[in-house]
From TrEMBL:
CDD domains: MDH_cytoplasmic_cytosolic. PROSITE patterns: MDH. This is Malate dehydrogenase. Coiled coil: none annotated. The gene is cMDH. Residues 5-152 form the Lactate/malate dehydrogenase N-terminal domain. Belongs to the LDH/MDH superfamily. MDH type 2 family. It comes from Nerita yoldii. NAD(+) binds at residues 42, 105, 129-131. Its EC number is 1.1.1.37. Residues 156-325 form the Lactate/malate dehydrogenase C-terminal domain. The active site is at residue 187.
Amino acid sequence: MTDPVKVLVTGAAGQIAYSLLYSVAKGDVFGKDTPITLVLLDIPPMAGVLDGVVMEMQDCALPLLKEVIATTEEAVAFDKIDAALLVGAMPRKEGMERKDLLAANVKIFKSQGMALDKYAKKTVKVVVVGNPANTNALICSKFAPSIPPENFSCLTRLDQNRAQAQIAARAGVACSAVKNVVIWGNHSSTQYPDVNHATVEINGKTLSVFDAIKDDSWLKNEFIATVQQRGAAVIKARKLSSAMSAAKAICDHMRDWWAGTPKGQWVSMGVVSDGSYGIEKGLVYSFPVEIGSNHSYKIVQGLPINDFSREKMDNTMKELIQERDMALEACN
Ligand SMILES: NC(=O)c1ccc[n+]([C@@H]2O[C@H](COP(=O)([O-])OP(=O)(O)OC[C@H]3O[C@@H](n4cnc5c(N)ncnc54)[C@H](O)[C@@H]3O)[C@@H](O)[C@H]2O)c1
Ligand SMILES: O=C(O)CC[C@H](O)C(=O)O
C-alpha cells in the first residue's frame, strides 16, 4: 500500500459532506488501494455535529480510512494536505440567485486561500464547491500565490452529469452511452451546456447528439433551460439544495483529476482561463479538459464554435466578469 492521501473536506457537518465522506473514505476517488487520512473542517457552532460525523466514520469500519481529524481551525485543517474539497459555505435558498451568496461566501474563500498558501502542500489539488463556485475558486487561487493556479478548480461536473442524464433519457440509452457533453462558463443559470461535440452510442453505432435526438428545437431550448435551472428545481422540490448528486459529482471530478480521463473523452471543470476560446484570462471558467496520468489537465483545443454557442459562451463570461469585480470589492 502507498502512503495515505491527506484529504480535507470543509463544511464537513453539512448535507453534501454527509454523502461525500463515505465515498471518499471507501476508495471511490483516490483508488481502491490508496489509504486515506480525512480532515474534517467546520465552524465552531458545528463542532458537536462534527463529533457525530467522526463517530459514524469510525463505525463504517472502512479498511482504507487510516485517520480522521476533525477541527474548527484552518491551521490544523490545511496542514500538508494533498487534496481539498472545499464544500463549506452558505447554500442558496429558494428565490436567491447564486451571486446573492457572493458577499457572504467569498470571504470564506479568501481566508481558505490564505490558509492553503501557508499550510498545504504546493502540489495540493483544490476543488471549490461552495457557491458561487467559479468566483470563489478565483478568490481562493488569488490568495494562495505560492500554489500554481492550475491546481485550483471549481465543480461543474454536476452540470455535466445533469446534461448527460437528460440526453440519455431522451435517447433511451444509459448515461454511459453519452460522451463529450461540454459545460461552458459559470456554474449558474447562464452556463451553456453544449452538445455540438457530443456523441450517443445507440445499438453499437456512434451518432452525433443532433442525429440521435432528432429534435433540434428541444436541444436548443428546453434541454439547455432544464440543465441551467436544475439546481433551482431541486431547491424548489426539496427545500434544500442538491446534496447526493453534488457529492457524486465531486467524486467524479476529483477521481478523474487524480487518475486521468479515458482516451478521446473529456470532462468539464471550472479552471483558470488561459485565454482559450476567447475567454478572458484569469477567470475561472468551465472548459472541456483532458487529464493525463500525472494529475495535469489540458483544455481541449480547436473545437469549432458556431454563432449560437459563441453568444452563450460570451454571455456566461460576462456574468463571471461581474462576479469577479464584485468579489474583489468584497475582499478589499
Ligand atoms: N458547485 C456545485 O455544483 C454545487 C452543488 C450543490 C451545492 N453547492 C454549494 O455547496 C455549498 C454547501 O452546500 P450544503 O448543502 O452542504 O450546505 P450545508 O448548509 O448543509 O453545509 C454547509 C456547511 O458548511 C459549513 N461552513 C460554513 N462556513 C464554513 C467555513 N468557513 N469553514 C468550514 N465550514 C463552513 C456550515 O457550518 C455547514 O455545516 C453551498 O454553497 C451550495 O450552494 C454547489
Ligand atoms: O444554488 C443552486 O442553484 C443550487 C445548488 C447547486 O449549485 C446546484 O446546482 O444544485
